[in-house]
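User: Hello, beginner here. Can you help me understand these amino acid letters and fold codes? It all follows right here:
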Amino acid sequence: MKFIKKSMFLMLILMGSIASAKSFSLQVVQKYGSETVVYEASYVIEQTIMDYFYENLYIVSNSPVIIQKKGQDISSELQKAFDAAQEGYLDYVIQADVYYNLSDSNNPEEALLNNIDKIEWKVFSIDSKHILASGKAVPGKKYRNDEDGLYYFSNELAEHIKEQIECKGGKK
């Protein structure tokens, strides 16, 4: 009987934490890169951010990477991502704009940190439709110029985004 009471108590705690979990949809926008191909680096950034939040008990979703061509207005594609998140009853949309600098790159399609100029991000609250938090990350020389370096940079970015969400009132 004592075991059943303890098990029920643990299940209630677990169910309460799941019910209060925050959720978001991630929208990656590839800028100044290929106008026809999504680069592997964009996928690594997307997957790393999603994994980080999932491991921190967020419910995560994503929309396909948007390639923004020079001078192209992508507001309708961004609105589709926002609408999908709203229909899914998610809490946030995180938009990560990945800016590429390929002028010195020998292999722009490879997941190299040197191909990334910066990442600008915004967290939109679905309820208020306002920007809850925003920022920018520049790779610098702290990381190796390979997929592992890109992973660590993206993971640090995800950690910073999570901290900003939580300090702006979006606590779980």
